[in-house]
Amino acid sequence: YPSGNLAIIVAREENQLICIVQEDKPNNAKIQAVFQSNGRSTCCYPNGAVWIIMNIQGGQYLDQEGSRVRRWTWPNSIMSSGPHVPLRPIFISLNRHVGVRILGQDKITVSFLAMGQQAKFKVGTKVQVSDIGRLPPHTWLGEDELLLLAFRVRILRLFDRLRGCLNFPSNERWDKIKPPAYLITQTLKILQLCTTSDISDELRSSIRAIVNA
């Protein structure tokens, strides 16, 4: 960045490349996006909420409350279930200097613009037919994303209980009040994703414990 802080990192981990976008801070900079050459990518809002999630089947676009705005499947995603949902071009700004353009599975670009100069990183990928045997089972979210969503719902439920305690300090039954409908819906969605996602039984039990605590 013009401030001198590191903006984008491209590194190799085993047999894949990873592109990481950091926020403009000198210390403890949060990760705003991660793009992996195996097709898994995540972009986050400035507040840390998940914005875009992609894998070799397709992707999802979420709002800052965690609700899905849209989803799509890649044209060559032969393992996707249900009807094919085409991608509508996506253009987002992670911050004032870094933008992301998504036009296709192999047409994803991270653009960095500062002081009149621009750099572009092509971070898309394309799954070949020869890779079919190595494709993982259908899943929209990875382990990290599921844990992130589970902790987010847990924190929101704790805040809701805190508000109930502050608003009704003399009510002995405040802790028995049910959470808002949207939190119940998000909890059910996460539990459903745990059932359909390719994760270990131990992680599945941990996520269930987090959201049901």
TrEMBL record:
**Species in which this protein is naturally found:** Cochlearius cochlearius (Boat-billed heron)
Q: Which InterPro entries match?
A: FAM194_C
Q: Which domain of life is it from?
A: Eukaryota
State the protein's name.
ERIP6 protein
Pfam families documented for this protein: FAM194
The residue ranges of the FAM194 C-terminal domain are 1-177
